[in-house]
Write a structure and sequence with these properties.
Order of helices and strands: EEEEEEEH
Strand content: 35-45%
Number of domains: 1
Helix content: 10-25%
Strand order of the largest sheet: 6-1-4-7
Largest sheet: 4 strands, antiparallel
Distance between the termini: 29 Å
Length: 116
């Protein structure tokens, strides 16, 4: 799995597509605000490297009344994490919490199961 933590998008959100080794794994879909996406890499793999490409729409803040920033911006990405399945979440799930808080929650669940 790859976990992508989106820190911010433009006011209307951004369409995002995710490609791993030239294969599209996450269809272009609108992401708004702060989100964590969990995307299945499609099975186990042993590799020395992986190519990850994010493709998003852009926006210009100056298009909003009262804004003067003419930069062309896309998504702000806070964190990208590759890892094994740590939970029963569905593939291609979307969360409004950070990766760190989701992993902590699952570690606590595992600890409770072992203690029982």
């Amino acid at each position: 799995y790859v976990w992508i933590e989106v820190a911010a998008t433009g006011p209307g959100g951004a369409k995002l597509a995710v490609y791993v080794d030239q294969k599209r794994l996450f269809r272009s879909r609108t992401v708004r605000g702060r989100r964590t996406l969990r995307i299945s890499l499609g099975g186990k793999r042993i590799t020395n490297g992986i190519s990850l490409r994010l493709k998003s729409t852009t926006f210009v803040p100056a298009a909003t009344p009262g804004e003067f920033d003419n930069r062309v911006l896309g998504l702000a990405i806070r964190r990208i994490v590759f890892g094994a399945k740590l939970s029963s979440y569905q593939p291609n799930a979307e969360f409004d919490r950070s990766i760190v808080s989701l992993v902590r929650k699952n570690v606590r669940k595992l600890g409770r199961r072992k203690a029982a």
